[in-house]
Amino acid sequence: MNAKSALERATEAYLAGNSRVAALDFERARAELARTGRADLLARALLTECAARVASLEFDDECAGLASLAPDAGPAERVYAAYLAGRADVQQQDLALLPEAQRQAQPAAIADPLARLVSMGVRLRRGETVDATLAVDTASAQGWRRPLLAWLHQQLRQAEAAGDAAAAQRARRRMALVLGS
Fold it and tell me: Cα torsion at 133, 138, 89, 87 (round to 10°)?
């Protein structure tokens, strides 16, 4: 229970942009789970942290610390790690091992806001076209500063690539508003 609440607090702090609190709570959750000696539980905590980074468009090569746990983690954890990394080696039969929300074909159909942002982040990581406006609206509705700024930056890049100066300027103004808070 301590690990679960620390992980929830850490994720919320991370998304809100409070890196110091997030780091402390992620570490607390990892320490609590390490005491169980269960690699699968610790892997899930690391994957939760990694998913929050993907939702915020912070793409690491792999989830930190997961490689050392991979041999003892379950197949669901290994498949989810490959999915978060945007690797193409996730097979059709492996999709059933992903969290329920990540099996949805369209991000707009995903009810959970974090899962929606994770799905969109993975798609972007794979080089797919993603509706940054949906991600911006999702992060904004939750008050999640970190992913909101990341997706606003993505929206700005998309507007500039499309030659839409008005949309680019709106994205810049909104970023300035968030940064000024």
Answer: 70
